[in-house]
Write a structure and sequence with these properties.
The protein is of the alpha+beta class and 503 residues long. The chain folds into 2 domains: 200 residues, no CATH class; 287 residues, 5-stranded Propeller (L-arginine/glycine Amidinotransferase, Chain A). 23% of the residues lie in helices and 27% in strands. The chain contains 14 helices and 28 strands. The strands form 7 sheets. Strands 1, 2, 3, 4, 5, 8, 9, 10, 11 and 13 form a 10-stranded antiparallel beta sheet that branches. α3 packs across α4. The two termini are 44 Å apart. The relative contact order is 0.10. The mean pLDDT is 94.
Length: 503
C-alpha cells in the first residue's frame, strides 16, 4: 500500500495488481463473527506521473477506511495534499486543495463483498459502506469492520474499466471542470482533460470470478452420430465406447445436426451450473485445409443446440472448445487464440477482451506448429486439451510434450507454476526404448465425467505407465481404458470426440 509522489505510472499499475491479488487471495473483512470476501474493487490514485484526476483528494495514512463523497467506502493509500484558505464570494473562508507535484492520494473503492458462506452479497459501494455505519458513539464497538488475513485458496479475477466515471450525457471537459472546483490551484485544465481521456478506460476494476464448473461435476455425456457412421466414422469403436459408458452408469446422448464426430470444438463451454458460452467456430485447420471438403464439415452449434433447452450467451471471438481447459479458477488456452483472431501473440488488450468475454481469467500457454500444415500427423490444432488436465486444488497433469520438445514444455510448466500450480509431467522417453510419439501424446486427452475417467490405450508399453500417472493424479476416480489408435492417429482422442456437461 506504499504508493508515493514519485512512483511511476507503470509501478503504480503493477502495485494495483499485486494488491488486488492479495486482497482476493489472502485477506477478508471481518465484522463481529462474520467474514466478507472481496468480490469487486476499483483503484484510484493520483500523483504527478499518474494524473488520474477522477481520484478524490484526501489527507490520511494508508490502510484507513475512508467514506468518500459518494457514500461508498475506500481502503486508503497514504495520501498527502496541501490545503489553503480561500475567501469565497460571500466573504467566508473555505479550505481548498492545492494540486501540485508534491500531491499524492487515493484509495481502493469496495464495490462488492460476498459473505464467506456465499449466502449474502453486498452489491454496490453504498451496500458495502453499510457495514461501517450505525455504530455506537459512546463505546468501543468490537463489531467495527477490520481487515484480517485469511487463506482464500486459489482465486481468479479479471480486470475491467471502472464504472460511472461519466454520467448521462456528461462530457469529459465538464466532468473535469467540475472536479477542479475542489482545488485552489492545479495543472493546466487542457492537460487534465487529456489525462481523463487516458484514464477513463483503464482497467482498474478488479472482479473476483465465480467458481468454474469442472469435469468432476459433470453428469451427462454427448456424442456425435457421425462417430458410428460406417464410412466417415468408427462404428466398431463407437459400439465399444457406448457399451463402456453404459457399464459405467452413463447413457450417452446423441447430438443432432453435427457434420463430423469431433464434438468438443464447436459445442459451447459450460462455465457454471446454468452458464454456457457460445463462440465463433472458424478453425483454420478446416478453413485453410487443402481439401475443400474439410470446410464443409464445420458444424454450427446453434443448430445442434436447438431443442436441447440450453441457453447460451455469445461472443464474437473465434475460439475452439478444445482450447479451453478449466483449471481451478482459470481457463488454460494456447496462444493460437491470438492468431485466430488476427492479433499478435501476447497482445495485452486482446487478452483483457478475451477474459472479459469469458468472464474468467485465462492462462495463455505457448504453442508452436511443428511440420507442414497439411501433413498428416502435424498438430495444427493448438488445443490446450492436448497439453493439460486439472486434477483438483492447485494440481495439473501435463502431457508428454517434453519428450519431444523439452524447452517448450519447460516454458509451459513455468507459466503454470507462476500461477501457483504444481505440475506433473507425463514422460515416456526415459521409460521405454522406442516410445510411440504418434500415439502417446493422446493419453492426456482423456474423458472425465464425475468420478469416472475413460482414457485411451493403444496396446503399447506406454499404456501401463500412463495409467499410473492418471491414477496417482486422480486417486478417487474409477479409471477405465479403451483402445482407440485409429482416432488418435487423426489428431484427437476421447475429450475431443465428446461433450460432457452438468444438468
Amino acid at each position: 500500500m506504499s504508493l508515493n509522489a514519485d512512483m511511476s505510472a507503470a509501478e503504480i499499475e503493477s502495485r494495483f495488481t499485486q494488491i488486488a491479488r492479495l486482497l482476493f487471495g489472502d485477506f477478508a473483512i471481518q465484522k463481529g463473527e462474520k467474514i466478507y470476501l472481496f468480490k469487486e474493487i476499483e483503484f484510484y490514485f493520483y500523483n504527478k506521473h499518474h494524473q488520474d484526476i477522477i481520484t478524490h483528494p484526501r489527507i490520511s495514512d494508508s490502510l484507513c477506511w475512508y467514506v468518500n463523497d459518494f457514500g461508498g467506502i475506500d481502503l486508503n493509500f497514504p495520501s498527502e495534499i496541501c490545503k489553503k484558505d480561500k475567501t469565497d464570494t460571500t466573504g467566508r473562508n473555505a479550505k481548498k486543495y492545492v494540486l501540485d507535484d508534491s500531491s499524492y492520494f487515493g484509495g481502493i473503492l469496495i464495490r462488492q463483498l460476498i459473505s464467506e458462506d456465499g449466502n449474502e452479497m453486498l452489491e454496490g459501494p453504498w451496500a458495502c459502506a453499510e457495514l461501517f455505519r450505525l455504530h455506537r458513539a459512546l463505546e468501543q464497538d468490537d463489531n467495527f469492520p477490520s481487515l484480517v488475513e485469511r487463506n482464500n485458496g486459489m482465486v481468479g479475477y479479471i480486470c475491467k474499466p471502472r464504472l460511472n466515471l461519466l454520467t448521462g450525457k456528461q462530457t469529459i471537459e465538464r466532468k473535469v471542470d467540475y472536479i477542479l472546483g475542489e482545488y485552489l490551484s492545479h495543472p493546466e485544465r487542457e492537460k487534465l482533460h487529456e489525462e481523463f481521456t487516458t484514464f477513463k478506460d483503464k482497467r482498474y476494476r478488479y472482479v473476483r470470478c465465480d467458481r468454474l464448473l469442472h469435469d468432476s461435476e459433470t453428469n451427462e455425456i454427448h456424442l456425435s452420430p457421425w462417430l458410428r457412421d460406417k464410412e466417415e466414422g468408427h462404428p466398431e469403436f463407437y459400439q465399444r465406447l457406448t457399451n463402456l459408458l453404459r457399464d459405467c452408469g452413463m447413457k450417452p446422448i446423441e447430438l443432432k445436426c453435427t457434420r463430423d464426430y469431433w464434438a468438443r470444438d464447436y459445442m459451447p463451454i459450460q462455465l457454471g451450473e446454468n452458464e454456457f458460452l457460445k463462440y465463433q467456430y472458424y478453425p483454420d485447420y478446416l478453413m485453410r485445409s487443402s481439401d475443400p471438403k474439410d470446410a464443409e464439415t464445420r458444424t454450427e452449434c446453434t443448430t445442434v443446440l436447438r431443442g436441447m433447452g440450453i441457453n447460451c450467451r455469445s461472443t464474437k471471438l473465434i475460439i475452439d472448445g478444445g482450447n479451453m481447459v478449466p483449471c481451478g479458477p482459470y481457463i488454460v488456452m494456447t496462444d493460437k487464440v491470438f492468431t485466430e483472431n488476427g492479433k499478435e501473440k501476447g497482445d495485452a488488450v486482446f487478452k483483457a477482451e478475451l477474459e472479459s468475454e469469458l468472464g474468467h481469467p485465462a492462462i495463455i500457454i505457448p504453442w508452436t506448429m511443428h511440420g507442414d500444415f497439411n501433413a498428416r500427423g502435424t498438430d495444427k490444432y493448438g488445443h490446450s486439451d492436448g497439453f493439460v488436465k486439472w486434477c483438483g486444488g492447485n494440481r495439473i497433469l501435463m502431457g508428454n510434450h517434453g519428450d519431444e520438445y523439452p524447452e517448450e514444455a519447460a516454458a509451459i510448466r513455468c507459466i503454470l507454476e507462476k500461477y501457483g500450480f504444481e505440475v506433473t509431467e507425463m514422460r515416456f522417453a526415459d521409460k521405454v526404448s522406442s516410445p510411440r510419439t504418434d500415439l502417446n501424446w493422446a493419453y492426456i486427452n482423456f474423458l472425465q465425467v464425475g468420478n469416472k475417467i475413460i482414457m485411451p490405450i493403444f496396446d503399447i508399453r506406454e499404456d501401463a505407465i500412463a495409467w499410473q500417472y492418471v491414477h496417482e493424479a486422480f486417486p478417487d476416480c474409477e479409471i477405465h481404458q479403451i483402445e482407440m489408435s485409429e482416432i488418435a492417429e487423426e489428431g484427437g482422442a476421447l475429450h475431443c470426440i465428446s461433450w460432457n456437461i452438468r444438468r
